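Recap from last week: sequence in, structure out.
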Amino acid sequence: MKAIVAEQPLPVFLYNIPGLTKTAYEPDTVVRLADEPRVVGVKDSSGDLNYLRGLRARVGRDDWSFFVGTESQLADAVLAGCHGCVGGGANLDPRTFVALYEAAVRRDMSTVAVLQERLRLLDRIYRLAPGTASIMRGLKCALSCLGVCNDRMADPLRSCTDAERRVIRGYLAELGLSAPAATSLSDRISSNGSWDSKESRLPAAVAARVSPV
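Predicted structure tokens:
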């Protein structure tokens, strides 16, 4: 790992995702790698928040970042002193993720609870079929329904069926994320180049406190 880091032109993040790699960064390994100045943080997608909490307690660098990959753990990770979440759903509903992060920073647990329920509803998009490929398949289909990208999956993986697409459109409508059929991607980019997600129907009490994305 140190040899790889030495060859990289940019700072390096460690990515712990044992569900796909079939191996994990042992905590002692992460602590040793934290001594490398150009290794600047870790994203953990193991689903074990205690793993990330343990690293947070052991890595003493102030310039290190700790991110969770499991979207449902965003608030708990922030409450544990971590820095946020790198989650695919933030491409789909960024306002919710920003609102949840800010509520956790404020320790506003009533707002956290409301937004956690919204993440639970969003999570259904990923679960239309067994297997981890269903997560990316559902996400790409949802983004394609909003005109962000196409839903093509890399071979040999398949895209959503027409029936699955109809289900996802229903979930998007329930979340207030459906884009009008005539709306193009360029129409949904504001004059400053940011994504216009005003269609997202956050609960009114929450939406009033959400910072623009």
